[in-house]
# Entry
Amino acid sequence: MSHRFPIVVAMLVILTAGAAAQTPSQASSAAKPPMPPPPTTDLVVAGRKLANWILANQLDSVVMNAAPGENADTAKMQLARFVEDLAIRGGSELKVIEEKVVRRNGAYQYWRTAEFEHAPSTVLFRIVVTPDGKYAGFGIGLANNPPPIDP
# Structure
């Protein structure tokens, strides 16, 4: 009897693991971001407008077009720091190379690839936009290392 118990436990573990491998786990479906609602406006046009306001330091316009729930003071402070840092490190935008909208982390993002005066290579400026074209955040990095997008 003492030899049988470990064998039964081992068989249960193997059967349970096999069944789990055959059925999709909730963890894998939880890792897939949800689809955002369909856009109600042209998100490239909305993203371009927001990017132009940010790069021109017209932050009041951005804040007035922020998504519901965005803290206006916090957004304006973060953007002001960003604009200052970009002016010092990147310089002026010289040429827009590409504009597109992608889905990332279950949200829409306007991606603007551009050349900047002092940047070592092309820059990817990302703005999170709501389906109705409102500002919901931003990110920036070199275009040769973009973050992953949703499938």
